[in-house]
């Protein structure tokens, strides 16, 4: 009894649109988790600065940067699967524009809340809570918009690894 061996040729799979990049739901969950970590860093900074008497504008601006820096590294690597040195023109600059819009919303809402609380003579812990709610509200409002822009514009095209030296 002879064995028949068959060999079948398999066509190579076409490249996926986001090869090397986590699937959409994974990216969304990971970006959300990264955002939660960034928000925690921002919250500690914001509350601390407000407690020490900083203006709402200065406190929210510094707090935003305190969260944005770690978020860049965590989200870029974990949510979008990016490694290596980022391309300044195609990745870093668009990222800065997107988060700049988020920063404007955070600082703007916190500054507005500060302007509203002054004439109402809301002070101390209550004022910090009101300013913090305004700051957090901007994060909630901006997250979906920011994720969509990052996912579709900044990090489109999959896992691009740029060489460390040029």
Q: Any overview of this molecule?
A:
This protein has one domain. The chain is built from 4 helices and 2 strands; from the N terminus they run ααβααβ. It is mainly alpha-helical. The radius of gyration is 22 Å and the shape is elongated. Residues 159-166 have low confidence and may be disordered. It has a two-stranded parallel sheet with strand order 1-2. It is found in: Membrane. It comes from Prauserella flavalba.
What order do the SSEs take from the amino end to the carboxyl end, as H and E? HHEHHE
**Backbone CA Rg:** 22 Å
Instruction: Give me the count of strands.
Output: 2
- The coarse overall form would be elongated
Largest sheet: 2 strands, parallel
Query: Could you name the ranges where pLDDT drops below 50 across 5 or more consecutive residues?
Result: 159-166
Mean of all residue-level pLDDT scores: 82
Structural class: mainly alpha
Beta-strand content estimate:
under 5%
Relative helix content: 55-70%
Distance between the termini: 62 Å
Strand ordering within the main sheet? 1-2
The total domain count is 1
How many H/I helical runs? 4
Question: Summary?
Answer:
With about 170 residues, the protein is mostly helical. Helix content is about 70%, strand content about 0%.
């Amino acid at each position: 009894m002879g064995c028949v061996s068959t060999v079948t040729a398999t066509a190579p799979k076409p490249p996926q649109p986001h090869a090397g990049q986590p699937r959409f739901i994974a990216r969304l969950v990971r970006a959300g988790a990264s955002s939660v970590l960034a928000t925690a860093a921002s919250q500690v900074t914001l509350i601390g600065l407000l407690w020490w008497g900083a203006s709402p504008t200065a406190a929210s601006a510094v707090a935003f940067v305190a969260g944005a820096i770690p978020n860049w590294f965590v989200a870029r690597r974990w949510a979008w699967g990016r490694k290596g040195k980022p391309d300044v023109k195609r990745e870093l600059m668009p990222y800065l524009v997107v988060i700049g819009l988020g920063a404007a919303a955070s600082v703007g809402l916190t500054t507005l809340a500060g302007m509203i609380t002054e004439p109402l003579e809301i002070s101390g812990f209550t004022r910090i809570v009101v300013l913090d709610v305004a700051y957090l509200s901007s994060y909630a409002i901006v997250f979906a918009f920011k994720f969509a822009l990052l996912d579709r514009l900044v990090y489109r095209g999959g896992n691009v690894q740029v060489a460390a030296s040029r």
